[in-house]
UniProtKB/TrEMBL annotation, chains A, B, C, D:
CDD domains from the UniProt entry: 4HBT
Metal-binding found in the keyword field: no
Species, as recorded: Kordiimonas lipolytica
Keywords per UniProt: Hydrolase
EC number: 3.1.2.-
Domain of life: Bacteria
Protein name: Acyl-CoA thioesterase
Pfam family, one: 4HBT_2
GO molecular function: hydrolase activity
Length: 142, 142, 142, 142
């Protein structure tokens, strides 16, 4: 099973007055992580996509379960698999752990559209093929 | 049906290179909004809760549907109802509209715990009673 | 002396693990405040400027003195005066207080340029005239 | 001359509707960078300092010159030197470049205090000695 992963350290800047990582900042981290997956995992650079090709990949649905508190300087490991590739959307499952313990699990549905018209665009064949490499095996698509 | 609502303007600081509101910043807005609901809607101030009483109200589950793009200087209206009050958790449904059009819908499950032990705490009776005022009517709790 | 002012509450989302407002978030607040000054104080809306006219007003210089810690739910009052109007730049002095006590003082130098070329643009006469209304009196321009 | 440096990529999450890095986010990056300097450059971990020893290192003064716009996926190199070590403060000079071109220059004055009393604390000898390794040579302290 192909899993795209990255690690990231929880910083002072991510914390709040409760002394733990403030959850809205996890979504900023997730955007960076998905940006890395597009660039390094798929070979389709976010900058090229947005600036040169005027295509956007907006997040249309998120589910998130926050399991354990993130503490300053915890090393988080993010692991991503694809659970479904639609005509112009893709479903991702992301797990964040630290030292083997769960921190959060999220699912993202990301759409593909033309930036100027806001109309959905089918994935080009090469992008679809690149995504298939990260598909979770059958039976794990929930 | 009691709905707690607030309006907020999308700022330059909320936008990204795609020219629209960057969704991770919506979660920061939601935290401010829920903070207002605790203080103004329930009469239990976030500061008092966190600093004086060392109680935390962490978000444990989120579902979000992003329906329409937010543009700079759109006025967003957020409307909150309670869909379930558990022993030490509360379920919220939030709708964001602008000029009558949907922008996003979210559900939040918020827990109640002692900050130092991380153990869940049942809601005190006065807090539970305050929450009941914002309950959605039967049949709309989904 | 004409002073443009606004108030803003320090939120949970502005705090860090030291329990006080995290200073990088003050710069986000300052951007919102300067955005309000352009729109409400000068009558030149940030959205119109950026989106329709493709003009940008980048910050080119900042000096900041952080005097007192900001605590959750402090009401901050921001007061702005203009200290210098250049050909294609403007110098602003901002003071933030809470309950009459200083929190921070900042000076900003903001430039005026064409978004596409990055070349500086002289202020149009109407914008310059609007800025003059907020000029600090002689002898206070330091 | 000892210079502490790190690189960091400008992300989609750092951009604004003008398509360039939004300057308030540079201050968040600078906080991470100074956190790295404390931990990796000085050997005094931010977490240990804040959580275990209840000491804070608040920023009391900043000067910033923004020289060139930051674009998505630019690699920024940050270089830090110490220009002055006071009894309970330290002055830092930071230069950010990308591909050899200047992006911004900042100076920071950072204080050292007890978190609970807010009173300034002299640097311990070992911290002072660690800081001296990063001092800029004479004649460059401006």
């Amino acid at each position: 099973m192909a899993t795209f992963s990255r690690t990231r350290k929880i910083r002072f800047a991510h914390t709040d007055a409760a002394g733990i990582a403030f959850y809205p900042r996890y979504f900023g981290m997730m955007n960076d992580f998905i940006e890395d997956w597009f660039g390094d995992g798929l070979g389709f650079d976010f900058k090229h996509l947005h600036i040169d090709e005027k295509r956007a990949v907006p997040t249309v649905h998120i589910e998130a379960d926050f399991i354990g508190a993130g503490r300053m300087h915890d090393e988080l490991t993010f692991a991503l698999t694809v659970t479904k590739i639609g005509r112009s959307s893709v479903h991702l499952r992301i797990r964040a752990t630290s030292g083997g313990e769960d921190r959060f699990r999220m699912t993202f549905v990301i759409a593909h559209m033309a930036m100027e018209t806001g109309k959905s665009l089918p994935w080009p064949d090469d992008m679809r093929a690149a995504m298939e490499k990260w598909l979770a095996p059958e039976g794990e698509n929930s």
